[in-house]
Amino acid sequence: MTDALAPSALAMVPFVSVDDMLKLVNAIGPARMMAEIADYIEADFKRWEQFDKTPRVAAHSDEGVIELMPTSDGETYGFKYVNGHPANMARGFQTVTAFGVLARVDNGYPVLLSEMTILTALRTAATSAMAAGHLAPKDAKTMAMIGNGAQCEFQALAFREVLGIETVRLFDIDGAATEKAARNLADSGLRVVSCATPEEAVTSAEIITTCTADKQYATILTDNMVGTGVHINAIGGDCPGKTELHRDILLRSDIFVEYPPQTRIEGEIQQLDADHPVTELWRVVVGQQTGRASADQITLFDSVGFATEDFSALRYVRDQLEGQGCYQLLDMLADPDDPRDLFGMVMRAAG
Amino acid sequence: MTDALAPSALAMVPFVSVDDMLKLVNAIGPARMMAEIADYIEADFKRWEQFDKTPRVAAHSDEGVIELMPTSDGETYGFKYVNGHPANMARGFQTVTAFGVLARVDNGYPVLLSEMTILTALRTAATSAMAAGHLAPKDAKTMAMIGNGAQCEFQALAFREVLGIETVRLFDIDGAATEKAARNLADSGLRVVSCATPEEAVTSAEIITTCTADKQYATILTDNMVGTGVHINAIGGDCPGKTELHRDILLRSDIFVEYPPQTRIEGEIQQLDADHPVTELWRVVVGQQTGRASADQITLFDSVGFATEDFSALRYVRDQLEGQGCYQLLDMLADPDDPRDLFGMVMRAAG
């Protein structure tokens, strides 16, 4: 996208609809697409210091939260709109829906609008898998999945593709969710074990992923369920007042986070003192700090989701547009012949 | 929009494109539409305390700024994406482009996506006119317009419609801009006087509107140009480092602002001490404080644009959708039959 393009072309913004995204995911394959997005996310973690970073801008209500997550690498600006409404599922709505935008920093013009409900599911699992590549025990083969909602299968597939996980052990307080996930993963190449209790699910698992949706302080994992050497991938503790792990687990773990100012408010570590030591994941990715240092260490990725991950996922989608053709052009930017003559544009449209 | 709608209908978001907006503006008529938007803006200023208010979230670069402006009244959430790139005009781009979203607070689902380049022009002029209704001299008939760029004709028409202004006196350092504005306003019912100097433009004007686009501290008005009893509608001083009025004018004026925490950073009053007294416009609108108190008072509306004004404008557009039909439905929200089964939706799309 260069200035050589006529302004009238810049007035049109490529839009990736839900239907387009479904086509894109299936054209590439969900597992491969998550692995490729994980590479984009890792590449952006490697240039972490280039990004404008800010905690998300959240509007909380009794029912849930609506958030804007902006960031910029100085050349491209991106933001995501995302809601989180735990009560939605019971009413037939998605807990999380999202869309996102990329724009040029030099002139402020949007260059991509994309659905991000599906893309957020992909990037969340891609982020988890990328982080686990640095933190989980080498040659981990079994992952426990506590919480078998919308994110579950994406996590399972991403961990298979990126880490070589062979077995997933599913548990959900709602057996129907477990059945759904097991059905969807039946032909995934993973061995799927449906479990009756969380204790059963974590048995023999080197990686424990928690991904439940209650908006409250919950204890999905108790201290005695977490053995030495395990990597915990904690996804569901992602807003103030919402956590999944017993505090004692945190105290035994080495904790890795995306962006401390946001995670202190939203993550599992909201249960800890504000100065409790944590390691920024990007420092591990660039090699400044150690990820997993020993076989009996408990590593915890306290993931809340950060704006750069959405940025990376949107960058990935933008890079697929030309090859895959999964988009339409939206007439989103007013583009008069003379930029000062916006009113003339209105008058001429009257014919 | 109620929960009785099937979720599949909620997956579709009404989108008002630039073309749709042009049709809408011309169907209603730009002057009438600005007067109606002014009523919506005033209605929302009257319930100011219901709104979540926050300074906009700005990403500054050498070339300009990209901003997100969110707000919520507890029932509906809205935000605007807007850029401001003063160098754009010389490159053939709009200085300001924008789009906006309304969403339901109770479930987080977007209910409107709209272009806002044109809508921002309308709401900015509507806000100015609404404020002037409370602050300008009664029976003002003449307005000086310093800066004849994209906002100029909208201001002139809104002031004609809402306040009964009969004459506009135009000045711009670029005579071509003045010619453009005069041409566009030729059949507007306004008497249009093109002036060679700013001093000539302000002669006999009861209202002075400044609306220039330089991203710097500028002195569009000097102290000796502003006589007693005038209302100044200062639009262009709207980001850090960008002002239009000499500081001495501010010291002689009673200053009215939208949202002090934002205006202190972005408005003309960034030139003043942080505790310089200002009046919040909403307090005048609800009658808590006096607007214009005497005939020789200089009133200054130090307008930077606030999120509630965009919210009001989006509310207005949403209320026109059904009657005017100026929208298309975008497939923006993933909506699986079972909200937990997002992955199943991806699989089924593969066919």
Automatic annotation (TrEMBL), chains A, B:
Highest taxon, organism lineage: Bacteria
Residues passing through the membrane, by range: none
Coiled-coil ranges (or none): none
PANTHER family listed in its UniProt record: KETIMINE REDUCTASE MU-CRYSTALLIN
NCBIfam families per UniProt: PRK07589.1 (NF005762)
The protein's name: Ornithine cyclodeaminase
